Structure prediction request, 229 residues.
Amino acid sequence: SAVISQKPSRDICQRGTSLTIQCQVDSQVTMMFWYRQQPGQSLTLIATANQGSEATYESGFVIDKFPISRPNLTFSTLTVSNMSPEDSSIYLCSFRLAGAPEQYFGPGTRLTVT
Amino acid sequence: AQTVTQSQPEMSVQEAETVTLSCTYDTSESDYYLFWYKQPPSRQMILVIRQEAYKQQNATENRFSVNFQKAAKSFSLKISDSQLGDAAMYFCAYRSRSNFNKFYFGSGTKLNVKP
Prediction:
């Protein structure tokens, strides 16, 4: 398996600002994913990021609010734009290795918006 | 759409005892994968065990085993000889064999381990 890291691990942000979360994998992976996990709840998929193409967003999530970049096979960023307190969550990135059914998750970014 | 249900929001087990976490799912597909993930307080999700629907044999990983009942759409996780380090949130997840990018997660079960 590969090692996956996220930065920052946590942040406290002001309402109306934006935060970019970075996700780095130590192997080349085709698909990366971004999830939101609100306090005490399960994971909700925000979008799927394939290198070289636009991210595919799930219902309820839009590119203007959560722009995603995937410049190469080992890196992705998620930006949470124009934040409000409702955006306070843990944001997780994950990846799937070709041929493997499971996803592997990063350590998460705990975002608090005040 | 597929749904995954974990009906036990929280459970407790004594150290060294055995505990079973329940999961049911709803699907019209015949070929799929099921997973149990563990999320300790440190937050990183870890894959515990995986089951392929076409395999009748229940998956086992050391102290972790599953009881997969395909007809009943049930997928429970048994943890034997529970250890303090097993304390975590446990999520059951489903993935279609054909749609390999879409995972469906249950709401989670918080497992407490008492010394």
